[in-house]
Amino acid sequence: MSSLRPLIPLLIAAGILLAGNGLQGTLIALRGAEEGFSETLIGLMGSAYFAGFLIGCLCVPRLLRGVGHIRAFAALAAMGAAGSLLLILFVDPVAWIAIRFLSGICFSSLFTTIESWLNSAASNSNRARLLAVYRIIDIGAVTGSQYMLPALGIEGFTVFAVMAMMITLSLVPVSMADRSNPKPPAEFSLNLPAVWRISPLAAFGCLSVGLTNSAFRIVGPIYGQSIGLSVSEIATFMSAGIIGGAVMQYPLGALSDRRDRRQILLGTTIGALISALAIVWFAGDDRTANMLLVFLFGAFAMSLYSLSVAHANDHAKKDQFVQLAAGLLFFYSVGAMAGPLLASLLMQRFGPHALFAYTALIYAVLIAVTIYRMRARPAVPRAHRPRFAALLRTSPVFMRMARRSRNARPANDG
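^ that's the sequence the OP posted. Answer follows.
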């Protein structure tokens, strides 16, 4: 781990931001409900966040070229911290929608900045370990942040102040990190027809994941609140889904490396569909049943993005990976912009379990598309497929890091 020591400040900053982002998403839903905002308004706030998220990913390379990583990070963190405080100063749905849009720009730009920095500083000898550590930090930070809500409470000023402090404190390790000026990432140019031609199934899979997983992350807390869960139980409910995905991504990915990846994508989607329907039909208001079934739901649903991207990589050339990363993130973000709003509208009309009925419907369509594509195109030979990589949906840079890790030859650290 000594080779990762210079990157520790950046990893600490990433952990703080991942925790703050996870905390803010759940807090917005629960506090918004306490303030009397409808499910539709809360869903619209989630859609606004993902609209800003996409803009940030696409525009931040230009900012990094103009002012460098440290100045860009400082400006974005200041805006993010100010936005967290504005949420409590202006408790109004229109204001919160605007703030969440700006938060999406800030958080996606901050993640792109950190991941670009990590990518430049990493070497072939430590890249795989860096990605593993980053994944662990992601899971630990996002799940741990959920439990700050019952500890701090969702009422009053305190939790918003702590959230602003977290974003501000992320400046400290970045300011103390290596002062080198890494090369900014390339522009994430969008050629959506080309991405669709590389893999229609992967494009539709990422769109489906955006429609479903974003809805779970944004309005899942409202589902938990509606069935009578306490704040601490909602934290456990959301964490169970995230941890389920973390547990199953690598086994499913390893299996997809050995077989036709579309078979694993199909089986995983069927698992997500069955677990979503089980929540609708059998969980009811039972706390234990909901916790167990959402773990299974997360195990399958949270793995679909990485499997879809891996399938696209099977058909891509080396010079297409950056374009592919941006295009697939675009399809995901379009789905993520629509998903929370659609799910919240259905929940407001039909009740909380409509969330998982809606996700089951999307997965049913994805199953049909997968079966059709399996008949329309032969499988890529195993020898010609790159290895699976579990991915975060933080920026296209993360996909590039994962690709370089898979392509690197093992090296001896000494």
